[in-house]
Predict the 3D structure of the following.
Amino acid sequence: MRVYHWVALLVCVLFVPSVYAFEAIEETVPTQYEVITIQNPEIEQLLLGELTDAPEMFEIVSETPFTLTAEIRAVPNTSGTSLPQLGGIIIRQKEIRGVEEVARLNATDATWAVMTDPDSGLVYQAGPYFSEPVEAGTYRIEVSNPNNQGKYLLVIGNQKDANGYFASLSDIKLVYRFYGLSMFRMVSSPYVYYPLGFVLLVGIIFSIWYWRRSQKHHA
């Protein structure tokens, strides 16, 4: 195989996953009821949060109309005894005074089907989902459950960003840590097993080439 063939294969393996970039942010609320501001609301972002005796609120401020997308996810319940009760509400700040409801993200409206994230390779339970074009303005998304305890995942936006491969890999590592899983489990992610597969393939091809070359020298 010629050198440029190797280069083309390497580009395919390392560049293709980065086209579908992955971004995760671990949000820590230092003070109860503090509002967290979200930048670039149309770019897909996985927010990792944990309720501690209070709902958590996220704010989006946009000077132009945009598509507001929000999905609540849950870390799978290993006991399987009950469905998650995570829910939320989306409100819009009125121009003069007060707020108006945009949508309710009711836990009972979701099937909480177990899904596999294509980037991290981790399973999650898909909860209530909302995605509609909205006017410019200030929006807030509140996440809660009956006792306001436990971890949750909130997906904001539906457009992939040009996040680099290594930045995406770092974010995937963050998600595994959030799940409480070993970094060795990251082999389930295509960001890991594609490069590993490539290295293995190169190793096999080199071994065959070296063996044949040794045979010729001994002939």
